[in-house]
Amino acid sequence: MSSQPTVLVSRRETFNAAHQLRNPRLSDDENRRLFGKCVNLHGHNYALDVVVAGKINDDSGYVMDLKVLSDVMQQQVIQHVDHRNLNTDVPWLQGCVPTAENLAVIFWERLKRELPEGALQSVRVWETDKNWAEVGDHS
């Protein structure tokens, strides 16, 4: 008898937020050179994709109830960042340059602690429909 395969499932949530790419350790000129027009306050329609993995539960047919995953995403991330200025309105983002890369890492940490051990596989933050950053447990 073969063992059941690990199955990946994903949930996408969206949020709208403003940010400014600016490193406070750098001068205005250095920030302008590094970040170009993104040094100005601007906004994005973000998407957050979270992938979890596990075995299919015999009773439910689920790896994880995606409503439960959605609730965790809402509570740990979306309710804090939606329609906010990521530079000034989110205490747990203070001190970081809110790039997609940094957001992905910070969101990973917030989500990982609320999900079953080993379930979280990846967190992808879409800043635009062309640009994303992903953190994953690719071990």
Structure characterization notes:
The chain is an alpha+beta fold and about 140 residues long. About 25% of the residues lie in helices and about 30% in strands. It contains three helices and five strands. It has a five-stranded mixed sheet. A hairpin with a 5-residue loop joins β4 (about 120-125) and β5 (about 130-135). The longest helix has 16 residues, at about 65-80. It is elongated, with a radius of gyration of 17 Å.
Radius of gyration: 17 Å
By DSSP (H or I, 4+ residues per run), the number of helices equals 3
Tell me the span between the first and last alpha carbons.
27 Å
Helix content: 25-40%
Q: Which spans have pLDDT < 50 for at least 5 consecutive residues?
A: none
> How much of the polypeptide forms β-strand, as a percent range?
25-35%
Mean pLDDT: 96
* Strand arrangement, major sheet: 3-1-2-4-5
By secondary-structure content and strand pairing, the structural class works out as alpha+beta
Helix and strand layout, with pairings?
Elements: E1 7-19, H1 28-35, E2 42-54, H2 66-81, E3 84-85, H3 100-112, E4 120-126, E5 132-136
Parallel strand pairs: 1-3
Antiparallel strand pairs: 1-2, 2-4, 4-5
Comma- or semicolon-separated keywords:
about 140 residues; five-stranded mixed sheet; elongated; alpha+beta; 3 helices; 5 strands
Quick description:
With 139 residues, the chain is of the alpha+beta class. The protein has helices at residues 28-35, 66-81, 100-112; strands spanning 7-19, 42-54, 84-85, 120-126, 132-136. The longest helix is centred in the middle third of the chain and has 16 residues, at 66-81.
